[in-house]
Design goal:
The structure is a single chain. By secondary structure, the chain is α+β, with helices and mostly antiparallel strands. The protein has a domain of 254 residues: Clam (outer membrane lipoprotein receptor (LolB), chain A), CATH 2.50.20. 23% of the residues lie in helices and 39% in strands. The chain contains six helices and 16 strands. It has a 16-stranded mixed β-sheet with strand order 7-8-9-10-11-12-13-1-2-3-4-5-6-14-15-16. It is globular and about 100 Å long. The N and C termini lie far apart (143 Å).
């Protein structure tokens, strides 16, 4: 009897152990739905955040990035270029502010020169403000209507940020729901990762490796055209108290059609702040004093300058095919009338006219009044 009891207890324990193993396996199972879910959950945990990183960008000699300069007969780099930059991205739900402080090639000086740019998206407008460049000696601002994140803010080098805290923004770049698990597993930096693939067309496909042990974070991304890697992205992670894992460093390489490297960017995170206080003005177009502003939001191309007193200069419409609007002409314009001033321009004459008519009417009535006969 005792022996039968022992066997029964052993059988129950074995069954419970089997259930635990099955449950654990199910919990660890990698599915496309689970990946999409974890991306969405991370996004909810950080409605606002800021990433700051350093970036080392390499342009090999002969890169097609400079083909347009070569076609114009302008100077192009004769050696590999290495560009150092600091980047900051601030997010508030779908709003974005990206700041770049780095360098660009100067065809005039034949060397790298400072380049500073701020791009913003406030939910309805996108703006790009070049604060320092090799082309002009004043800031240049371009403002457009935009209902979704502009393509310039969805560049491959930003993918580690989007995949970590803004999965909703990835629906155009990497629509994870359209990927399929291949069943293939690969050890990447001592981590077992699962492969997902998506066929875009006959000649193009995407490949993603996720790490289920790190909240389904993407460790590798590849874009192939005719089975040649057009772009590859490798990401390393570190722990974070709020999100579990955040990008620590990443490298993005874009290739020529020949397979040679066109450009590579190596990024190292220097700061991450979750749920910081931000202001709506942080995501509005940046229009510093002395800037030329090209505003396309009205459906017309209106140029104006930010005058030295900080006011907005009177706008001039540019019509395609006409003579370009010069910066000197813009900066010499008088300040634009405020809405109140515009209203007063027509309201004051109306009020004065009404008063004159009223006074005239009273005087006319006084003159027409019958004389009062004497009493008695």
């Amino acid at each position: 009897m005792c022996s039968m009891r022992r066997w029964a207890v052993a059988a129950v324990l074995l069954f419970l152990t089997h259930l635990m193993l099955v449950s654990a396996t199910a919990a660890d199972e990698v599915t496309v739905e689970r990946i999409a879910q974890t991306w969405a959950e991370r996004e909810k945990r950080v409605p606002t955040c800021r990433f700051r990183w350093t970036q080392i960008e390499t342009h090999p000699k002969g890169s097609s990035l400079y083909a347009i300069h070569a076609a114009r007969g302008e100077a192009v780099p004769t050696t590999d270029l290495t560009i150092h930059a600091t980047c900051t991205m601030t997010l508030d739900h779908e709003k974005i502010r990206f700041e770049y402080n780095g360098q660009t090639w100067s065809v005039t000086d034949r060397t790298l020169k400072p380049f500073v740019d701020v791009s913003t998206f406030d939910g309805t407008r996108s703006a790009s403000t070049t604060l320092q460049s090799t082309v002009v000696d004043h800031p240049e601002v371009l403002i457009k209507n935009a209902s979704t994140t502009p393509p310039a803010m969805r560049l491959p080098v930003f993918l580690p940020i989007w995949m970590t805290v803004r999965g909703s923004l990835m629906k155009k770049e990497i629509p994870i729901e359209q990927f399929q698990l291949s069943g293939r597993k690969l050890t990447i930096k001592n981590r077992l990762c699962h492969e997902l693939t998506r066929k875009i067309s006959t000649n193009t496909r995407e490949q993603v490796f996720v790490d289920p042990g790190r909240d389904n974070q993407v460790t590798q991304y590849r874009y192939y055209h005719q089975e040649k890697p057009d772009m590859r992205l490798d990401i390393a992670y570190k722990t974070d108290s709020k999100l579990g894992w955040i990008p620590e460093s990443w490298e993005c390489v874009v290739c020529e059609s020949t397979g040679a490297i066109m450009t590579s960017k190596r990024c190292t995170l220097t700061e991450f702040v979750a749920n910081l206080e931000v202001s709506a003005s942080d995501f509005e177009p940046v229009c510093p004093i002395g800037a030329r502003v090209v505003d396309l939001t009205s459906g017309k191309e209106i140029h104006h300058a930010i005058l030295l007193d900080g006011s907005k200069g009177r706008g001039i419409e540019y019509v395609p095919g006409s003579e370009a609007v010069s910066y000197d002409e813009l900066i010499a314009q008088p300040p634009e009338r405020s809405q109140l001033t515009k209203v007063m321009v027509w309201l004051v004459p109306v009020v004065v006219g009404v008063l004159l008519l009223t006074v005239g009417g009273l005087v006319w009535r006084a003159h027409r009044r019958e004389p009062i006969p004497p009493s008695g």
